[in-house]
Amino acid sequence: MRKIRLNLGQRSYEILIGRHAIDQLGKYLKKLDLGTDAYILTNKLIKAKYGSQISQALLKSGFNCYFKLVADSEKSKSIACVGGVINDIARRDFKKRIFIIAFGGGVIGDLAGFVASVYKRGIPYIQVPTTLLAQVDSSIGGKTGVDLCAGKNLVGAFYQPKLVLSDTAFLKSLSTRQLKAGLAEVIKYALIADKNLFNLLLKKRADILKYDPSVLEKLVYACSLIKSGLVSRDEKEALDKRTLLNFGHTLGHAIEAAGGFSKYNHGEAISLGMLAAIEISKNLELLKVADAQAARSLIKFYGLPEKIGKLSLAKIISAHFHDKKFKGNKNKFVLLVSLGKAKVVTNVGSEFIRGALKSIS
Ligand SMILES: NC(=O)c1ccc[n+]([C@@H]2O[C@H](COP(=O)([O-])OP(=O)(O)OC[C@H]3O[C@@H](n4cnc5c(N)ncnc54)[C@H](O)[C@@H]3O)[C@@H](O)[C@H]2O)c1
Ligand SMILES: [Zn+2]
User: Fold this and answer.
1) Over the range 33-42, which residues count as b (16 or more CB within 10 Å of their CB) and which as e?
2) Based on the structure, what is the number of domains in the chain?
3) Is residue 234 part of a domain?
4) Could you tell me which residues are beta bridge partners of residue 143?
5) What are the b/e assignments for 66-89, b being 16+ CB within 10 Å?
């Protein structure tokens, strides 16, 4: 099993990565002494596939466990769902030794983390992510939250988990579309921070698309290492370090919103956002033409979307004005300067944005 320590003073924690890492969950939880009663937030599908594995791991170490199921949908990231879960926890918290386990993809992780942050002003929680996207990204770094009608992730808190345990054996049951959504984020890490990861993605495509466990473990490890480094240097995104993780997300979020959150999933929208950001980087002469071509080719190589199809440019541009990172009327983009290196640029001219969107129309 591979281990990474995310250093954040008293809020530091370990990220454990490996095939069948779940078998060791009880041992690590005992050391952490978070409580005796595990409240496992998950959905029906994940419980059916892996519920017995997690409960056995807990029971053999003497923990009590209870499964709370929420609907398998982004709709579970809602204030209504938070209310339901909190009331349920309060009913079960008679021994006052309860802690939460987020057992699922990013939806469950964001919801569980938020609930943990507000119930009794904060109780401990851990992340046991089961999608590639959650293992490489959403389970790490303590951004928790739910959506409002006015937009995604508008209510939330920075609240760090006490442990992240990524069992890469869970990834074998992901659909190809879900695997690729996670790979879009992996490509993001490669482009902004890791030329070796870029080369690995080029070399091992066939193995990755066949869910080869040892290569998937390498990907999860490489990405977790990059994210934990950036989070430990800039937990609350105050220094533009953590912001680098937003590469492809400024226009990606706008594309996701313009598609009504159904045409493209997050990873697909981010791929299109990365293609647009690469075009802007090239047109602003930050990135060499050949590097722009190589970056684009990697995204295409994994069969991620290349064109926005029938989505209206006006709708995307209007959605991008709602970006949380906008300060006043200044936009904020993460742009590439070479393969494996990125920087934050504010106030990118609208002609560059329009041109980039046209290049993927
Ligand atoms: N907090 C953060 O830093 C952060 C970062 C990125 C994304 N997010 C959030 O993450 C969410 C998206 O996460 P996601 O892509 O994991 O989506 P998701 O949680 O909806 O999971 C995708 C689908 O995969 C299923 N699934 C989960 N594990 C599985 C497994 N092992 N085998 C088969 N199916 C499985 C789920 O039931 C679901 O149907 C969004 O809400 C996004 O806002 C948060
Ligand atoms: Zn993302």
Assistant:
1) ebbebbbbbb
2) 2
3) no
4) 158
5) ebbebebebebbbeebbeebeeeb
Same domain for 55 and 23:
yes
User: What whole-number distance in Å separates Cα of residue 188 and Cα of residue 278?
Assistant: 11
Tell whether ligand 1 has an atom less than 6 A from the beta carbon of residue 178: yes
State pTM to two decimals: 0.96
Q: Is the dihedral of CA 298, 303, 309, 312 positive or negative?
A: negative
Ligand index nearest the alpha carbon of residue 248? 2
Long-range contacts of residues 308-312, Cβ cutoff 8 Å, at least 24 apart: 308/255, 308/272, 308/357, 308/360, 308/361, 309/263, 311/255, 311/258, 311/259, 311/263, 312/258
Q: Could you say which DSSP state residue 24 is in?
A: G
CA of 321 to the centre of ligand 2 (A): 18
Tell me, yes or no, whether 180 and 154 share the same domain: no
- Note the Cα 61 to chain centre separation in Å: 30
Element (H, E) at 254: helix 249-258
DSSP 97: -
Beta strands in the chain (DSSP E): 2-6, 13-18, 37-42, 64-69, 98-104, 125-129, 143-148, 151-158, 163-167, 332-338, 341-346
CA dist 256 → 66, 137, 246 (Å): 35, 18, 14
At 302-350, the pLDDT tens digits run: 999 999 988 888 889 888 877 666 666 788 999 999 999 999 999 999 9
Q: Residues 144-183: pLDDT tens digits?
A: 999 998 888 889 999 999 999 999 999 999 999 999 999 9
Q: Quick check: is 20 catalytic? A: no
DSSP 11: T
Which atom number of ligand 1 is nearest to the Cα of residue 77? 41
| Domain, as residue range, for 31 | 2-173
